Amino acid sequence: MALFRTYQPYTRLGHFEMDGLLSRLDREIEERGENGEASTPYYVGARIAVHIARYHEFVDTQEEFMLLFDRALAELEGGEDGR
Q1: Residue 3 lies in a domain
Q2: Structural domain that includes position 75
Q3: In a domain, 68, yes or no
């Protein structure tokens, strides 16, 4: 029995792959939203995270990521940052 966790090799996705993933998530969100599926918000959250990874490449801290994520949610909800 191994005492250490084994991780898969690190892979970095390029802009082309990230753009494709964003497009795929957009289609899933649209389809699931039209069908009224309860899982739709999870896909929206995934899209926000991928968008941050794609367009904010130099996020230095977890706190900075969460600030960007919260800001994106506020924009979707029409909150303070979404005006």
Answers
A1: no
A2: 15-82
A3: yes
Vertex 76: Cα angle to 73 and 28 (nearest 5):
95
Residue 1: inside a domain: no
Q: Which residue has the tokens 């289609």?
A: 27
Question: Cα separation of 37 and 17, whole Å?
Answer: 26
Per-residue pLDDT of 24-66, as tens digits, reads 999 999 999 999 999 999 999 999 999 999 998 788 899 999 9
Domain count, the chain: 1
Buried b (16+ CB within 10 A) or exposed e, 5-15: eeeeeeeeeee
What tokens does 61 get? 């801290």
pTM beyond 0.85: the answer is: no
Phi, psi (degrees; rounded to nearest 5) at 50: -65, -40
